Amino acid sequence: MTPTATGAVIGLMGGVGLCLVLWRLAARKITLTDRIGPYLRARPRTSRLLAEKRGHTPFPTLERLLTPWLNDLGGLLERLGSTSASIRRRLQLEGGRMSHDQFRMEQLLWSAVGLAVGLFGGLTLGVVRGAPLLPLLLGVVVCTVGGGAARDQMLTRAVRRRQERMRAQLPDVVELLALAVGAGEGPVGALERIVRSTRGALTDEVRHTLADARSGIPLALAFERMAARTDAPAVARFAEGVAVALERGTPLGDVLRAQAQDARESSRRELMETGGKKEMAMMVPVVFLVLPITVIFAIFPGLAVLRVGL
């Protein structure tokens, strides 16, 4: 390593360390609540059997020590990227398998991995190629921000795929539910049969709705909550239709058969729209790849004959 590169690396590390110290001193001020909080114990409002586990890692002591730092970094991510409300909504749409704090920790981990990759690549290019310092720093920043943004985009894709699976499963679930109700079973019994005989994203939502009904919530309100937990219009219409039928006393079998027909028609329309989009996408290789090659094969023999004649 040349003396210039060594000095650049030492200066970079010193500058980053100084910026971290200054940012830490100005980012968080210890308040009176923070000082007396560890010595006070809040009285639980619900049973401890229903309390959520607070530990996200197998090292609770280290987690408590790093929590203030993680909260500050989470606030920075919220200012630079998606808000907490948006993340909580997408986590709910994704199935509620992860809390907001867990997602922020994973996002920070992805940013740390991006920072490590950026530093490794920057140092390698600086030593081997002798690249300027400013583009290397810009690359490190881009890698760090890109790591957190990639985790956010992965959550969005997971939500989209889950909603698509729910829309694809909806017609079968509604028809099975209509058959169960038409055979004489009650709404709760029909939901139990659906949970036992099917698997998938929509089945998980039905299982959640059935758990709400068993806990004492009215079945109509449980279906309204199911409509609020999904972002698929077809699933929301199904849940709201069943809730209205239960509230007004409408025959549930007729409502479910109509819902099944509507789900089939909606699935058919979505399939036709997808086919139309794929058809337009298939025109790109035909026009820009297959057609020019066909024209070349058609013209080449004539050009060869003309060349021989000349």
From TrEMBL:
Keywords: Cell membrane, Membrane, Transmembrane, Transmembrane helix. It is found in: Cell membrane. Its main location: membrane. Signal peptide: none annotated. The keyword Transmembrane applies. One of its GO terms (cellular component) is plasma membrane. It is a multi-pass membrane protein. The chain crosses the membrane at residues 6-26, 108-127, 133-150, 286-306. The keyword Transport does not apply. Pfam families: T2SSF. Residues 175-298 form the Type II secretion system protein GspF domain. This is Type II secretion system F family protein. It comes from Georgenia yuyongxinii.
